[in-house]
# Entry
Amino acid sequence: MAELLRYERLAADLEGMIVQGMLRHGDRLPSVRRLAEERRLSVSTVVQALRQLEDRGLLEARPQSGYFVRRAAAVRALPDARSTPETAVQVDVTQRLVAVLRAGSLPGVAPLAAALPAPSLLPVAALQRLYAGVARRHPRLLEGASHIHMDEPALVRQLVRRSLAWGGPLDAEEIVVTNSCTEALGLCLRAVTQPGDTVAVESPGYYLMLQLLETLGLKALEIPTDPRTGMSVEALDLATRERRIAACLLVPNASNPLGSVMPEEKKRQLATLTATRGVAVIEDDIYGDLHYGSQRPWPIKAFDTSGNVMLCASFSKSLSPSLRIGFVAAGRYRSSIALQKTITSGGTNPVTQHVLAEYLESGAYERHLRKLRRHYERQVASMSEAVIRHFPAETRITAPQGGYVLWVELPEAIDATALHAHAVAEGLAFVPGELFSASGMYRNCLRLNCGNPHSAEIEDAIRRLGALISHRLPAPITA
Ligand SMILES: Cc1ncc(COP(=O)(O)O)c(C=O)c1O
# Structure
């Protein structure tokens, strides 16, 4: 092997320390001058090494403060989107999925399967106080709900106000409050599709969306999705030229499982393309508030000029999954969605709607989010470092830009579904990659939940999982 240049040697040494976890996310490097003195190098050689690591996303230069470690994930970055089948397929994931999620929630199993936040990160005490206060101050809320006025104006007002931060304001008239994001997505699909229709989805894409298609008798057309920039608009363009697609269902901000954020220009293109081709857009923005960057990414809805985009979200990932409060800003599909809501569940708990409205109004939510985003980013970074430490060297991982799941691509030879059966027997959990694809792609991939603070227990679970994987690798061929 060619000998490394001096700057390459330094870059390789620093990279090794990041991979080994000696240098961690957020750590500050010694100054350029000190590195130069200690390594007997010129300042320009040190700067060249640091710039190389910066270009690769491993380091971040902060003006006046020096170089900081960004994320170990960049060392093992996942390559581009995979190509997907050209035909739409029937979905059949539910039975396998239920078994996987059940196995992942057994007592004593590290919480790496379902994407759930740690209870310790949630403002449970504040919500408790609000529930008691709201029930006392507004007894009428306990006296009966209305099938005509389903949405509490106090909550709708807060949702409209918050939307200013991402290219809103939403129109209060288009909002339907729902029992969770799942209900919102189901209502949208029922409003714009008939059984047998085709729906374009991300690949890999969130398994619950596939389940919804399965139960509604819809076919899934998988669209290649880039680990950094999300669904391919070019591929969607081609697909919509060739066949009728009733709807496009996607998570453009911090997708599940890739954590990708679609750049704004792509969102604008997607909004225009779908409006022109008559494809309804159902976007799930549940992770939009949980971005790691300095600015809240806008949803596709912000670029919608014809009411074609239905924006769904909930507070399950940011406040508490138990609230079961979500909403859809339904654009021109508002009346059919409101009808679907009436015949599905009649309305959404008014006490909880008020609790949420008061929490949002107090400003506590924004303060909570500021801390929560940093927690999730740190947890994902720690999980990435643990995977790099303990999984085989050929493993590739995502560099999520928000949310709290990590997608892991194992060496080709590993079947993550078969691995799962062994892992469960050892008290280990994850979600196998094939459940994120209607056509059974991603057999060598898996998703890890990073919703919990990184602990010795989680580190140990990743270490043991890594050992199981290494054990299943074919022995290297020796000459
Ligand atoms: C992208 C996405 N949408 C929706 C949900 C479910 O949200 P809710 O609990 O509000 O139904 C999840 C949960 O994992 C998710 O990842």
Remarks:
- The mean pLDDT is 93.
- The first helix runs from residue 6 to 19.
